[in-house]
């Protein structure tokens, strides 16, 4: 019988307070597994900046996935332009793509004329409620990054998501494109909130 023993960190509560530790755990696991890329969700750019600072000198690649244009308000991008310019100037890729676990399906489920849940909503809600909101976010960010060509599908990445703001979930994922969603594998949970 063959097995590997790994540490998993559990945060007492979800949220932004865990961001610095999530960055540390992500970097440690990336180095341990010789993974080159960390994919991080960031809405305003604050979490992206925190990860960039923590990763400085590590030799790791940072891929940031943001909300789509118009996510909260039509025609507006929530990500700070100043932060985006600073990070891009340092070689960080910022990816913005349609949320694959909602997108068009959310418009249908929210429509008073059509309504009802969709299969994508069911997958998203299952990840949110049975494991962690941050896991759903991390999975979705990897799908978006793969679909945009920012990461390949043949090498594992460290993926980081959060609950509302900041980072509180870190995992190891073998990516896939959205059209091959069930080929994606969450191979390790590195850290997550124990209580949600």
Q: What is the N-to-C order of secondary-structure elements (H for helix, E for strand)?
A: EHEHEHEHHHEEE
Helix count equals 6
Average pLDDT number: 91
Can you list the strand order of the major beta sheet? 1-7-6-5-2-3-4
Per the CATH scheme, the topology name of the domain at 9-41 and 98-193 is Pyruvate Kinase, Chain: A, domain 1
Oligomeric assembly: single chain
Percentage of β-strand residues: 15-25%
* Major pleated sheet: 7 strands, mixed
CATH class of the domain at 9-41 and 98-193: Alpha Beta
What is the CATH homology-level superfamily of the domain at 9-41 and 98-193? Pyruvate kinase, C-terminal domain
What class, by secondary structure content? alpha/beta
The radius of gyration over CA amounts to 16 Å
Q: Just name the CATH architecture of the domain at 9-41 and 98-193.
A: 3-Layer(aba) Sandwich
Count the strands?
7
The separation of the N and C termini measures 35 Å
Shape: globular
Spans of at least 5 consecutive residues whose pLDDT stays below 50 are none
Give the fraction of residues assigned to helices: 25-40%
Give an overview of the whole structure.
This protein is of the alpha/beta class and 196 residues long. It has a domain of 129 residues: 3-Layer(aba) Sandwich (Pyruvate Kinase, Chain: A, domain 1). It has 6 helices and 7 strands. The protein is globular. The protein starts with 8 loop residues before the first strand and ends with a strand. The model has no long low-confidence stretch (mean pLDDT 91).
